[in-house]
Structures
1.
Amino acid sequence: MDIYRLLPRTNCGECGEKTCMAFASLLLERKKDLDACPPLSEDKYASQREKIAELLAPEIREVVIGEGEKAVKIGGEDVLHRHELTFFNRTALFYDVWDTLPADKLRERVQTITDWRKFYVGKFLRLNGVAIRSVSNDAKKFEECVRIVADETDLPLALCSFSEKVIEAGLSQVSERRPLIYAATERNWFAFVELARRYGVPVALFSPSLDTLASLAVTFANKGVRDLVLDPGTLPTGKGLAETFAKFVKLRRAAISEGKKEVAYPLLSVPLVAWLTHKDPVEASYWEAVIACIFIIKYADIMILHGLEPHSLIVERTLVENIYTDPRKPVSVEPGLRIIGSPNENSPLFVTTNFALTYYTVESDISSSKIDSYLLVIDTGGLGVESAVAGGQLSADAVKDALERFGVEEKVKHKTMVLPGLAARISGETEDKTGWRVLVGPKDSGMIPRWMEKSWPPEWLS
Ligand code: SF4
């Protein structure tokens, strides 16, 4: 209501919504931007616009790294726990390269980071950025390294050195790409303030002392640099790791529960440190993935990692995807009749729900077994089979409705369907309501090929 009262309240519809009230709700859910209300940009509404922007500002400042389509937004969170609302911006995963790598190896590593992808629940997961580390501490070398990386990738970049000269050499190549500069400390902060102001880039602040970190943040903010990221240091083992975890929780609680604006910025962790204490590469990548998982859950908004082995990348990227889905919206696919392979009128018809994870698992189990078939996807509001049967979303009526709605009878002449094993208890009612014969398939779609050997075609079709 506070936001609604500050809108022009003319219900003019220019925002695409019928009423200002509807627009206010969408603003709150971050589904619309203030710019979508053109009247609000008129001078007479300037102070109201400012007040709405204040009301809408997330508890944790949102910081953008990079430019264009691949830019990543980090922070911007309002809650400590995902189920209290949702998390808005995924933890951004930046993988490192360094300036002592030979040019061909450097290009190869950047390509690996840029091209990596993994198909998961209907889309490709990718990595978010490249962190360029100065190992040589030589400004010229770093500049050349940054030039090569920028040539090879359009991913967002982080420039990593405690030397302002080295960072500035890197910025000379890529400042327009809005890289994160890492990191300002209590020794170099003055020079980093100048760099951030001159080039308009976000800055990471580093200190293992939370008091120093807060005081650095206040100093930067007072000097007009507010796109900040806080790194309290990441220790990779034992008590150090436990203390690191406690610092992340303390910082995020202070920002969200205690309203301490001086630390209300995105947090950065560096699981890469596992490689400093574990010499065996398998052990190092294992511990790096463990540390990454801890801080993906609480509360890193961005992290710098090293290992590019699939067993680390898949774990890290998949966990990000799962933690940062919106609990208000089940992950679902469009209902409908899918064609798998080249089915004909005698091919089997499988039934499943539109919960994305269920759908893609069933679809992949059937298509990878090369079973030419139809797959009827029922709208269960994004629920899996067991929950949808219990809640009534997967019912005889729902199946009947889907058969008619998607014209299944025109394609499948045998009028036989295969219900998931977990929906066995609606099989009788489904036969009665639809007039179709119902076979009960396996509970696990991975068993469909074996089930087919024994149960398809049924005797009335053979
Ligand atoms: S454009 Fe603005 S004034 Fe018009 S209906 Fe939308 S929110 Fe209301």
2.
Amino acid sequence: MSHTNGFSKNADLYRTSRAHSELEDLEQSLEHLPAVTGLEVLDVATGTGHTAFFFARKQAHVFGVDINEEMLRVAQEESDSKSLSVRFLKCPVEDLVFDDEKFDLVTCRLAAHHFPSPLNFLSEAHRVLRKGGHLLLIDNVVPDGDTEAAEWINSYETRRDETHEKCLSPQDWKSALGEAGLTLVSSTAFPKTLQYDPWMERMSKEAGEKDALWEELMHSPENVRNYLKPKVDSKGQRSLRLNRQILVAQKS
Ligand SMILES: C[S@@+](CC[C@H](N)C(=O)[O-])C[C@H]1O[C@@H](n2cnc3c(N)ncnc32)[C@H](O)[C@@H]1O
């Protein structure tokens, strides 16, 4: 399935998804970034625009790009209803339509695990950043130094979501940033507990499929269960922990 189809079905769910609309990770990232007021910001794989709106509210000048027209339609609707001026464009992260050194800050949140080539994305981010500019990358990660858990988690994610390519580990991201010529400024773990059912429903999973995937998770290897912490609370609510990493890098 192409990325375009995969996200189109459920674009509206991303507008309200708690995983995407709760912005503590972005608030936390500000500790590692220069003041953003007045900056030229590019939010890549913007989805329904949560990250783009966050920086627009901080008085930055923001472009948001994505390859999925339905996600961009929802983002534009939100932008109009909130009277926030973000310019949205259809464009792949691997081939950005912008001139070299146009932006002070490039952001990419909860999207890089969909990219077939993280390096192509990083090299484009590097190209459009001005010297001294920053990249803010937030994504779910797999554990450092545990190939078995990393493979299990990526295979599970691919069965949940056909558009999933690969979650990298924090160490993989550090290496890739270096390869793209970006200097790591900070790398911060941001574990986030998610309700299991909405997480599956965003991917149109029916009750039977949800239960089967839950059973798989509950019977996963111990190192995976320690990392993802699947739990059922006293009201029968199922949850798991996804491990986001907040990385800030700079172009010298
Ligand atoms: C989960 S959403 C992004 C969430 C959003 N960044 C936020 O903070 O709420 C992932 C988005 O990545 C987009 N995407 C995936 N691959 C892409 C690519 N190669 N170029 C541009 N956008 C891409 C999808 O279309 C989708 O809208």
